[in-house]
Amino acid sequence: MQSFEWVDFQFPTRTYVQRNSTHNMGTLIRDLGERPFVFSIQEEIRSEDEYQILLTGLKKQMSGCIIYDEFHSLPSYDQMDSASYFLRRSGADIIIAIGGRHTFQVARSLAMLARNEVYAGELKQKRFPLKKAPMPLVCIPTGLTIGEESSPDMFGYDSSTGDFFYHRDHRLYPEAILVDPNLVSNPSRNELVRQGMAVIAASVESILSRKSNEITGSLSLKAIELVVRSINTLMTDQANQGARYNLAVASVVCGMAASSTALGLSYSIAQSVHLVTGMDFYSALNILLPHVMEYNLTSSASKYVQIARALEQDIHDISIIEAAIKAVEGVRKLYLDLNVAQRLSDFEIAKSTLGEIAELAAEYPLIKNTPRDMERNEIETILITAY
């Protein structure tokens, strides 16, 4: 698989979406490697039964599976170094990551660390690309992940020092992603609403990205439409399998777009809120979205018109700015209809932490994707408004 940093759009990853495929995923992977390193973070395994079915299928189709599920949550740098050392010595030739966003971020980091003579704590200062290509990777999401299984980004955070690294390397595109809609869309209605709205937030970020283009924009708008239609259906019919399937597809499509554009300000601040306070990332992303949309409105008004239409807002016979405002109103209306929290203070976050959150977010490279230039004080202003 080959990818290029300089092209407008690429998605070199093989993508498989099939209901009830959890037990049979090994047949799709066995041609990609002979000795898999199966990696997961425990808190992102939503169903132990489904996880064991998946592992049984992998072991049946692939000999010598190495199961590594030592981490309960996002690991420290030292833990990542231990895992990469184990991976290097194991003789594995492919990583199979099963879980959610942190699982995939760490797996990509391990794929790079295992092939290069470098420690996790050194990655922030390293010049990229590193000399050796990463190990091949397959991603299997266990929930809606705003498409992070598709991303070529690597990330790590050490809570003891507050240090983090983030790099984008197009060699980190996974060889394949395998999605069983029955697995990823199995949670409760409330959890699906939270995750589904996060897919909308990520899709809006992708549309507003400075790297957005006609292809990524079309994919992101389709993801928004799928979520809006499916969420409205689930409001009256929680067991509707078609709506749950569409949410799974929306997450995949969102990831295809975001893997080319990268995300931006809402994502960076939400990640910082999560790391500093422990607040759920998706909830933080949802709360921040309308405030960031308001911040960027005048610089990207024409894009907001498309977003408003995807949100099923009536924009006939009004100006571009009025239609753009409708996009923000459309998000807030969805929040009200679905009873989505709209304030950070609802999660008992101390107001005194907002400065620390802004400081961390200001260091995140992805804020450069926002349509307007951004400084730390402006990030803190957005946080205060969202509080």
TrEMBL record:
Oxidoreductase as a keyword? yes
Q: Does the keyword Oxidoreductase apply?
A: yes
Keyword annotations for this protein?
Oxidoreductase
Highest taxon of the source? Answer: Bacteria
The record's listing under Gene3D superfamilies reads: 3.40.50.1970, Dehydroquinate synthase-like - alpha domain
Q: Where is the Fe-containing alcohol dehydrogenase-like C-terminal domain?
A: 194-387
Q: Where is the Alcohol dehydrogenase iron-type/glycerol dehydrogenase GldA domain?
A: 12-181
Q: Which InterPro entries match?
A: ADH_Fe/GldA, ADH_Fe_C, Alcohol_dehydrogenase_Fe
A GO molecular function held by the record: alcohol dehydrogenase (NAD+) activity
* Record's protein name: Iron-containing alcohol dehydrogenase
Taxonomic lineage of this organism? Bacteria, Pseudomonadati, Spirochaetota, Spirochaetia, Leptospirales
